Amino acid sequence: MDAVLARANPYLTLLGLGWLVPLVKIASGDDWQRQVRELWRQLGVPLLAIALFLLAWSQLAGRIETSLGGIPGPSAVWHEAGGLVAEHRAERARRAEFYARQDARNAAARAADGNADVRVHRYTGKPTYLDQILTSLATVFTGFVLAALVAVPLGVVAGLSPTINAAINPLVQIFKPVSPLAWLPIVTMVVSAVYVSSEPLLAKSFVNSAITVTLCSLWPALINTALGVASIDKDLMNVGRVLQLPWHTKVLKIVLPSALPLIFTGLRLSLGVGWMVLIAAEMLAQNPGLGKFVWDEFQNGSSASLARIMVAVLTIGGIGFLLDRTMLALQAAVTHTAGRR
Amino acid sequence: MQNGRAHSIGCAVLAAAALGAWGASAAPPALEKDELKLGFIKLTDMAPLAVAYELGYFEDEGLFVKLEPQANWKVLLDRVITGELDGAHMLAGQPLGATIGFGTTAHVVTAFSMDLNGNGITVSNDVWAAMKKNVPVGADGKPAHPIKADALKPVVDAYRAAGKPFKMGMVFPVSTHNYELRYWLAAGGIHPGYYTSADVSGQVGADVLLSVTPPPQMPATLEAGTIYGYAVGEPWNQQAVIKGIGVPVVTDYEIWKNNPEKVFGVTAEWAAANPNTHVALVKALIRAAIWLDANGNANRQAAVEMLARPEYVGADRAVIANSMTGTFEYERGDKRAVPDFNVFFRYFATYPYYSDAVWYLTQMRRWGQITEQKPDSWYDATAKSVYRPDVYLKAARALVAEGKAKEQDFPWTTDGYRAPTHDFIDGVTFDAHTPNAYIDSLKIGLKGDERPAATELVTAQ
Questions:
Q1: How far apart are CA B4 and CA B11, in angstroms?
Q2: Which residue in A109, A125, A301 is closest to B216 by CB distance?
Q3: Domain of B183: which CATH number?
Q4: What is the pLDDT of residues A16-35, one digit of tens each?
Q5: In angstroms, what separates the C-alpha of B81 from chain A's closest C-alpha?
Q6: Contact at 8 Å (CB) between B234 and B45?
Q7: Which of B33, B34, B59, B221 to mutate to test binding with chain A, by most A CBs within 10 Å of its CB?
Q8: B229 and B264 part of one domain
Q9: Where does A176-246 have alpha helices with state H?
Q10: Pure H helices in A62-128
Q11: By a Cβ cutoff of 8 Å, what residues of chain A touch chain B?
């Protein structure tokens, strides 16, 4: 039992479930006083901090009067979160009605004329809050995967060759600090010039946002990969040289496994940057995701707008946290197996 | 070209014939494109789009339309030009400005005027307090309307004497609001500044510095003190009253009675490629406009409910209702009846009159956006290349045939020019047949072949 717990512990901690360990230990008859202290540290303290934060928020919020009314407190935000879910349900009901109407119309057209050219159209209503979350996730992953596909190979090459590293380093240093807001106009113009098609598979706004995410999340992965590759144990590399391994075998068998921990650190940072950048990109590119939701609500300027924006802020934070944890878990899993090999 | 046009007219006639019989045989018209994405800005005058969607008028025409709010007028126009949007709710000056090459250049056309009036000019509480002393009081003890910019002039002079530039916001260089604000200021002897080919800020020689702010951000910008007043569409004037941050002083109905406002714009290329779809779209929009004005604004409350939803205008109901239901609140508590504040269909509001286009072109020339003098024939030709009453009348004819509109609802025999009018705040007569004479008759502004030379026209600070 203890052995199992000891092995599971790091994973549970990773998932934010470390507080389960003391509970299980109490259940299995361990020294309960020590375990309760542990439980307090792992679960009680964070919960208390959150409660204090909510208290401070609700106390302070009412004191600031904006032109849209007072800053909403936690209960107003919770209420709006419920409202967004209700809107999602209502919109889904409208979608069902839309399809029913369309089916009826198509059936009528077919009944009147057996050869009638009927087509099924997709629902035209607004994207709901949940749809917008999914769009944002799809956009950030597209941008992130593109960034990884460029950054990792480039990083490996740069790590292996000091000459190439010296060549791209200044460019990396210059482009790394550039804000997505600066990239977006350029990306927009280039995409609309290059991406021409009468029936585009992906909306331009989606492509614009995804490429902006790529441009901003490229650098942490690139730098860390290069660093990881460059700092591989010289002995290992020498072994490869002695064995006269061909280049691709060397990369696949020696370089990538040894550099994996740092590559993953870079990718994790990249995904974090990408998620942060995405919201700004969506606001400007009008990609129908969370960023556009925030912008539209800001423009609405209704008495509920601030609370709805705060729901989005908490959602963005929560998803960012989950993405980070997922990458961390992946990193731990990969590093672990790599270490054992 | 000639063949193309004949062909498209032929198609439309066929489509119209098919439409007439649609109810019976359920044969849908041959639409070139039936899935459309249309853009709008969060303003109450996007109402025809929301209504046509919500009441199923688009679907009745076999159109599957997605409505999408846009960040600002430039983004909206650019996305129409690149084809990301099939069409959009536009400022009347946008198709004209784009076609003559002021700002982004592209041939954009319109076959549907979306509304008349609907804008106002709001000033901050401080400016209003200073201005109110100069406003005559009526018999009822309230300020007499319309309030002219003469009352603002001493305030502007005082700011300038104190070394503070007097700044106001408008929504876009070719927006109705820009021209209305300029008209109002100039009628009160305040110079709003010229555009030149070198300086497109429009502030050369200005007593009041005008700058661009997107409509929904107007109240926030006013509150921040960046501007002292603004010209914008609803609900953003009423928003200022309700939040207590400013006072609307004049509506555009008082500046120019029943002035044309937004239009529905598409690119000329799109219109040529999708003639039947264009007619079908205009049909749905005409029906929406009829509904909005039916029975003396009886449907306006229902329209307010639609517009208040977050995917459309999204402002609070009370704010939208203030102007949409035929009243307008000036100073807080000073609510007056303005039944024609928003006109969507009455007075042939939706017909794309060439004379509307000509007025905008005269103002572009007056303030230097058009840098050189143009002959009267140029105004006529430009209006005719942008405004497309032929498409409008096809749609109207089809609606009458289907029994969805009445014969007398449309000006079938007009030459596209409204009768000359002097319903302006300064009483100057506008005859769209003689644009150059009109431009010369306005006190402040470029006349004849004048050019705004930056050095000469700057008034002493």
A1: 11
A2: A301
A3: 3.40.190.10
A4: 677 777 777 777 777 778 88
A5: 10
A6: yes
A7: B59
A8: no
A9: 180-194, 204-230, 234-242
A10: 74-112
A11: 67-68, 87, 101, 108-109, 112-113, 116, 119, 121-122, 124-126, 192, 203-205, 283-284, 286, 288, 295-303, 305, 308
Q: How far is CA B88 from the centre of its chain?
A: 13
Q: Are residues B96 and B139 in the same domain?
A: no
> Where are the domains positioned within chain A?
2-58, 129-340
Quote the pLDDT of residue A27: 78
C-alpha separations of B340 from A192, B57, B254, B377 in Å? 42, 25, 11, 33
Q: Encode pLDDT of A93-126 as tens digits.
A: 989 988 988 888 888 888 887 777 777 888 888 8
**Looking at the partner chain, which of B53, B216, B308 has a beta carbon nearest the beta carbon of A299?**
B216
Domain that holds residue B169: 119-258+440-457
Nearest chain A residue to B222 by CA: give it: A67
The residue of chain B nearest to residue A66, with distances taken between CA atoms, is B243
Q: Are residues B398 and B447 in the same domain?
A: no
What's the pLDDT score for residue A2?
66
The answer to whether the Cβ–Cβ distance between B316 and A303 falls below 8 Å is: yes
One domain, residues B89 and B208: no
pLDDT at B278: 96
What's domain A129-340's superfamily in CATH? MetI-like (1.10.3720.10)
Sequence-distant (6+) residues with CB within 8 A of B420 are B429, B430, B431, B432, B433
Residues of chain B with pLDDT under 70: 1-29, 453-461
Looking at the structure, tell me whether residues B173 and B188 fall in a common domain.
yes
Among A101, A109, A121, the residue with its CB nearest the CB of B26 is A109
Chain A residues inside the 8 Å CB shell of B34 = 119, 121
Find the closest chain A residue to B218 by CA distance.
A299
Residue B448 located in a structural domain: yes
Does residue B235 lie within any of the structural domains? yes
In this structure, the answer to whether residues B401 and B284 fall within a common structural domain is yes
* Total structural domains within chain B: 2
B265/chain A closest Cα distance in angstroms: 20
Nearest CA in chain B to A97: B56
Q: Which of B67, B84, B223 sits opposite A204 (nearest CB)?
A: B84
From the list A317, A321, A323, A327, the residue with the least C-alpha distance to A279 is: A317
A300 chain-B contacts, CB cut-off 8 A: 42, 216, 310, 313-315
Q: Do both B138 and B80 map to the same domain?
A: no
Closest CA to B42 of B304, B175, B233: B233
Which ipTM did the prediction report? 0.72
Taking Cα atoms as reference points, which of B66, B101, B106, B164 lies closest to residue B461?
B164
In a domain? residue B208: yes
Task: Tell me: do B112 and B133 sit in the same domain.
Answer: no
The residue in chain A having the minimum alpha-carbon distance to the alpha carbon of residue B68 is A126
For A126, which of B243, B311, B315 is closest by C-beta distance?
B311
Sign of the torsion angle spanned by Cα atoms B355, B359, B365, B366 = positive
* Residue B421 located in a structural domain: no
